[in-house]
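Quick one, T. Sequence first:
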Amino acid sequence: MHVPLQVADGSHKFKKDVPFELIIDYYNFDRKLRFLILDFIERIEVGLRAILCDIYALKYGAHWYLDANLFKNTAVHSDFVARVKSFCDECEFQFIKSYRMKYDTPPEPPCWMIMETLTFGQLSVLFENLKGGVQKSNVAGHFKAASPVLESWLQSINSLRNFCVHHSRIWNRKFAIKPIIPVKEGWRFLDKIEDNTNWRLYGILSCMIKMMENVNPSSDFKPKSKELFKDYNHININYVGFQDDWEKEPIWR
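Structure tokens:
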């Protein structure tokens, strides 16, 4: 990918008119944006755990995640259950130990305990592997999406999260795992959708904001991100997919 600060000849040399201070500013901007995004993803993760637990436990009981009949791919489900059992056997979490000291049928703890031990990626795979139906649609509905759309959002968010936690650059990055951005009336939340919207950061962040409209409507992600953009107004955010009139989009107001 062509980097605007470097000479476009593959040498990775910086342009002569690029001051070192500007390079540091780009680095600091990217670092602060990653921290801001991780905080937002944390809210999404907590919300997903709670909603998934509530909806499925009320219908299928506290140990619904052990029921292979609820899942599309039995091999993926078997692997998931095996990982859960192995984790419970080896973990030092007191709430897991306390459950096993008191109960032995089943030896695996209820879903609200297990959800606390899953990574965002595992949550994403768990949701994707659930069979379609009323419960799955209800979970997706809490995040203002259809089930297949939410699946794509979770996958793309997990990819973004991995870049953030591993301190990888997200400015001017093309993301291979792209979220579905709805274009149908009633589902659409961006007026202007370009060819690169869903593989740039702007598209993923827009989906994340849409997800949290019901779950955490008082989120401070938008004002904090706008403040960051203002502090670094010399950083070109077009390279993360933000169009010149992005603040006019209702979802970003």
